[in-house]
Amino acid sequence: MFKPYYIVPTSVVDPIYLLEQVACILLIILIGLLAFLDLNKRGKTIITAISLAIIVIHYIILYKVSLFEKITMLPLIFLERNSHGEAFAIDYGQLLILTNIVLWRKEIIARLHKGG
Fold it and tell me: Based on the structure, what is the number of domains in the chain?
């Protein structure tokens, strides 16, 4: 009889899957808001708040996975390695940080020109 080999115990994986589901729902909401919300200050603030929630959840997931696999952070991607091989994935945390910098670029540039 075939017995599956699990690298990460299911007691750890199940909460990670729950966090991934929450992050996915927030990401869908974020994409919808970006498509339909006016990008005024209030809209940008809402988008930034949801982005921060996704970023925090994303890096909590990566931390929990890093307890069982080797995680290598690269620009805009991360690499997961274990005894069975490796896989890379988009780093949504970095992507959302860049998205927020672009979203707030006028305010950031104005603040930098003003000197703080």
Answer: 1
How far is Cα of residue 89 from the mean position of the Cα atoms in its chain?
Answer: 11
Domain containing 98 equals 10-114
Q: Which amino acid is it at 75?
A: P
Q: Are 61 and 24 in contact (CB under 8 A)?
A: no
Angle at 87 between CA 86 and CA 91, to 5 degrees: 135
15-26 pLDDT tens trace: 999 999 999 999
Distance CA 76, CA 98 (A): 10
- pTM of the entire structure? 0.85
The 10s digit of each residue's pLDDT in 64-79 is 989 888 999 999 999 9
β pairing state of 85-90 and 77-82: antiparallel
